[in-house]
Amino acid sequence: MSTYIDTHVHLNADQYEEDLQEVIDRAIAANVEKMVVIGFDKKTIDRAMQLIEEFDFIYAVIGWHPVDAIDCTDDYLNWIEQLAKHPKVVGIGETGLDYYWDKSPKDIQQYWFRKQIQLAKKLNLPIIIHNRDATGDVVRILQEEDAAAVGGIMHCFGGSVETAHQCINMNFMISLGGPVTFKNARQPKEVATEIPLENLLIETDAPYLAPHPYRGKRNEPAYVTLVAEEIARLKELSVEEVALKTTENAKRFFKID
Fold first, then answer.
1. How far apart are alpha carbons 253 and 230 in whole angstroms?
2. For residue 190, which of 161, 212, 218 has the smallest C-alpha distance?
3. In 3-state terms, what secondary structure has residue 27?
4. For 225-234, b where at least 16 C-beta lie within 10 A, e where not — what string?
5. Which of 77, 117, 193, 227 has the fewest CB atoms within 10 Å, counting from its CB?
6. Distance spanning both ends of the chain, measured CA to CA
7. 135: how many CB neighbours lie within 10 A of its CB?
């Protein structure tokens, strides 16, 4: 039977405080065999580290989110470096740039983005990239910092096929989430169609960005199957083939199993 890996989920979010075990049980029932929880500030990193101790099928990625870059410090980055030595921490992030929200000035976002790329290279861990309205600067900084040395994931990718190829050439995987199922999501559907399956991962970004038909509701990792189903439809493949290949990709990429 096909199994899935949700490569980007926020089980450490407050939205799951009341029913986390039920959410995890539904994911397991949907054949989601592993989940990668993202910690992106002090509170969510602490919780992510707890979850990887509690559940053998949960792994963590830890870093500092660009929206909150103004709150980052060298002490926090040193702390992340120490925690990242845990064998179940499999990446640095989510980091990157977010020019949609204006909490953190662009220069501060770029400074901490570069520092986290440098940290990922020091630790030989992949980098998980958040990009919102900042594609040109994200690609430029990845190139300037030689991020290809460790590679990474373009999380919940919403860019063009051309940008996807640029990222693949820098040793990055393209991860698709709920938006690929939205009727009006032209670019994610084009990327799902055009980009080879060997370069794709699947994710939910739960509790955010729930796929159709749950759009606007709380997302959860069980719904990663709907992402795989839409990619299979667009590629004219079986869901089993998409599940098998994206699971293989994730295990290889994160060096798990």
1. 22
2. 161
3. helix
4. bbbbebbbbb
5. 193
6. 18
7. 18
Q: What single-letter DSSP state applies at residue 146?
A: T
pLDDT band at 197 (very low <50, low <70, confident <90, very high): very high
pLDDT by residue (tens digit) across 135-153?
999 999 999 999 999 999 9
The pLDDT score that the predictor gives to residue 174 is: 98
pLDDT over 90 at 228, yes or no: yes
- Return the closest-CA partner of residue 226 out of 189, 184, 180, 190: 180
* pLDDT beyond 90 at 102: no
Q: Is the pLDDT of residue 222 over 90?
A: yes
DSSP letters along 194-241, please?
HS-GGGEEE---TTSSPPTTSTTS---GGGHHHHHHHHHHHHT--HHH
pTM score of the predicted model? 0.97
Distances (CA, A) of 105 to 15, 42, 66, 108: 28, 20, 10, 5
**Residue 191 identity (one-letter amino acid):** V
Separate counts of helices (H) and strands (E) for the chain: 9, 8
Asked whether 172 and 130 are in contact (CB, 8 A), the reply is no
What's the token pair of residue 220? Answer: 């959860």
Top CATH class, 4-254: alpha beta
Residue with tokens 């870059």: 69
Q: Which is nearest to 167 in space by CA: 119, 209, 113, 129? A: 129
The set of residues, in sequence order, having a beta carbon less than 8 Å from that of 62 and lying 6+ positions away, is: 38, 39, 40, 45, 48, 49, 80, 83, 84, 89, 92, 93
Do residues 37 and 52 lie in contact, with contact meaning Cβ atoms separated by under 8 Å? yes
What are the extents of the domains in the chain?
4-254
